[in-house]
Design goal:
The complex is a heterodimer of chains A (113) and B (115).
Chain A (H helix, E strand, L loop, with lengths): L2 E3 L4 E5 L4 E3 L2 E3 L6 E7 L6 E7 L7 E2 L2 E6 L4 E6 L8 E8 L6 E2 L3 E6 L1
Parallel strand pairs in A: 2-12
Antiparallel strand pairs in A: 1-4, 3-9, 5-6, 5-10, 7-8, 8-9, 10-11, 10-12
Chain B lengths: L4 E3 L2 E4 L5 E6 L6 E7 L6 E7 L2 E5 L7 E4 L6 E5 L8 E8 L9 E2 L3 E5 L1
Parallel strand pairs in B: 2-11
Antiparallel strand pairs in B: 1-3, 3-8, 4-5, 4-9, 5-6, 7-8, 9-10, 9-11
Classes of the chains: A mainly beta (113), B mainly beta (115).
Amino acid sequence: AQKITQTQPGMFVQEKEAVTLDCTYDTSDPSYGLFWYKQPSSGEMIFLIYQGSYDQQNATEGRYSLNFQKARKSANLVISASQLGDSAMYFCAMRSGNTPLVFGKGTRLSVIA
Amino acid sequence: DTGVSQDPRHKITKRGQNVTFRCDPISEHNRLYWYRQTLGQGPEFLTYFQNEAQLEKSRLLSDRFSAERPKGSFSTLEIQRTEQGDSAMYLCASSAGGTRTDTQYFGPGTRLTVL
């Protein structure tokens, strides 16, 4: 069975600083994809970044990067230069093959001015 | 290119009533997914369609739940005889399929409150 664990219920970061949100995963499938989504208070899930299990390099999308450590089964999201608008819930998710996305419980990020 | 839309955004109903939600995916996306999200949790998969075919259903989808995608475009999710435990955010997502990432894009959700 697939499982996503996000151990940080809440995180605080100062504006303009970088922050790392933790995600560990468990799967027996050698081929899988890892996703991060942002959910503001409005409720919509916004796709941020994707990492494939066979990708050699860590994924980056603007201020978002994914610290992928396959041996440790971790896929941490790094947000650089935090902005007030980054305050939201962040969810790590995984899919292998044609299985549906499996989400973690999320981390609430609060950016402080 | 419009995103995924859902209607209504909010629904308040009394226990025992039936409710129906609609989801319009991104045009040309052939896969459509329904998820349920309760407070403090991540979304949980309910069901998914490839075009008009319902290919997978979660055990969370009790007999009171039914989903359709009659023409392979929009989808409806109906809950019959609602219970207070059905109160949640119902999220719809769509994806193009056939790509390496097959990223799912979500709509704004329908928040259901059962009194």
